[in-house]
Amino acid sequence: MSERDDVLHSWFVQADWNAPTVVGGEGAWLHLEGGRRVLDMSSLAECSNLGHQHPRLVEAIRDQASELCFVTNAWGAKPRADLARRLLELSGFEGGRVFFTNGGADANEHAVKIARMAAGKPEGKIIARDRSYHGATRLAQALSGDSRTQAESNAAALGISHVPPPYAYRCPFGSGSDAHCGELAAAAVAERIDEFGAGQVAAVIMEPNAGTNGIVAPDSYWPALRRATAERDVWLIADEVMSGFGRCGEWFAWQRQGESARPDLMTLAKGLTGAAAPLGAVVLSSDVAGEIEHQMLYTGLTYCGHPLSCAAGLAALAAYEAEGLIDRSRNMGTELLTELQEMQSRHPVIGDVRGGHGLFAVIELVADAATREPIAP
Questions:
Q1: Structural domain 57-322, CATH architecture
Q2: pTM of this prediction?
Q3: pLDDT at 210 exceeding the cut of 80
Q4: Domain-by-domain residue ranges, the chain?
């Protein structure tokens, strides 16, 4: 039976929604009502990193359900503790802590709350960037420099300030050099902090490798951004909701730049459970965790760290490792970039190819390759 008349669907004019009903899945395939199957070319919302109905995930959820379906965050739960410990190990954030959420948007909301709390700046400014996406809740919309969300947000009232992005193909700073454009974009963040005064800024939140808005920052960007924030004692939050868990050829995209590029907080969701169950997380460095250790954490989510979701998360991490999928993504990303560049040489409509850091790449279509005129407004 269709949901057409009964369910509200996100990012749709309701009168226009008319999608088929999915009744099953296997690997990269979705099974539709009526027997047809379709190839899932986007891992749904860029989250089914392990494909559909991965046996490890199904078994983990089933086993956990037979033992304990739910206990609140006020009590301990073994899968929650084990998953937190594993995330801290994989990210090199040992000595830190993990706060579990229900998904990516509320992970970003809580990262901002925790950063302000740890900085001792409850009204501290948060610097984000144009052409970014951090979710569709109120604060996450304000953080996002996205045409879909800006009309619904009031960024200034929520203490959010946006800076231009490291969009090298159409560099907002007028540079013709990818590396220089990345450096200038990081410098713009530093300048904005200095305009407010570092004492007024709690954190900077950025995507190490943006997804829905198509910007792959030059390699010069993230290290320069890390230096700029560290020099000013401003927390750096890496939004890894989409880019984490192998999509960019590492466990987390910032790791491409080495240990010196480590953020102070990191937000996760999507691939954290391979989408088998809803779960997000905020990973705190030991420095951030230390600042809030003796403060009341005035927040809560009924289902944060849900045992079924945490069991799925542990199984997902085990699958990424056992099947060598992080290395596979990195290796296949090199092949993907080569093939896309070959396509670009044959098709003038492809103005730019960027990515290649795993199975996350962008092609930008243009009406005129010489002038870089966009193919759509």
A1: 3-Layer(aba) Sandwich (3.40)
A2: 0.96
A3: no
A4: 1-41, 57-322, 329-377
